[in-house]
Amino acid sequence: MRTPCIPRRGIAVLAAAAALSLGACGSSDDTAAATPTASPAAALTVRDPWVKAADSGMTAAFAVLANDSDTDVTVTAVTSPASPMELHEMAMQEGKMVMRPKAGGFVVKAHGTHELSPGGDHLMLMQPSAPIKPGDRVAFTLTLADGRSVAFTAVAKPFAGAGESYAPGMHG
Question: Rounded to whole angstroms, what are the CA distances from 147 to 36, 74, 76, 142?
């Protein structure tokens, strides 16, 4: 069987067309929250993101951060239009478990994952501007140490959890 011959100029045109068509791909529907979000340059993927629904006060967002690259990735900040944000951890301090800002951010090891979970590291919504009801979709952007960012959307869920409280008195 003979393979068709494509002139070099034709290959360049096909490559450019493919790049443009991939760059134009996008979704405006609500399925984005259920799909892992990746930053190809950073190789950081946000899997299974969700937010603890709350009528008032502080709350938190959780996910699994996966790094498919050959180098460690550090998340240094998070933003959301829904609330001022902080990276937080739960840690032992003077014999008590306390919530506090995470100094240095979250390091996701090369080819590894970092879990953001209730009772552990999390994304803290400090003062949501409105109640976050079950089913609401909340947008977030992670800032990485190299200046790049990873945007994702998380769905709010009712969650009683392990009785953790995201009240102001919980800070260490």
Answer: 21, 10, 9, 10
Quick one: which of 58, 63, 24 has its CA closest to 47? Answer: 63
Write out the two tokens for 123. Answer: 């994304």
The SS3 assignment for 170 reads helix
Residues 6+ apart with CB under 8 A from 99: 88, 89, 90, 124, 164, 166, 170, 171, 172
- 67 three-state secondary structure: strand
Its pTM surpasses 0.85: no
Query: Residue-wise over 73-98: b if at least 16 C-beta within 10 A, else e?
Result: bbbeebbbebbebbbbbbeeeeeeee
Return d(Cα 105, Cα 141) in angstroms, integer.
14
150, 142 Cβ separation under 8 angstroms: yes
Residues contacting residue 56 through CB under 8 Å, at least 6 positions apart: 128, 131
Backbone angles phi, psi at 117, to 5 degrees: -145, 160
pLDDT in tens, 132-172: 999 999 999 999 999 999 999 999 999 876 555 555 554 44
Q: Which class does domain 34-170 fall in?
A: mainly beta
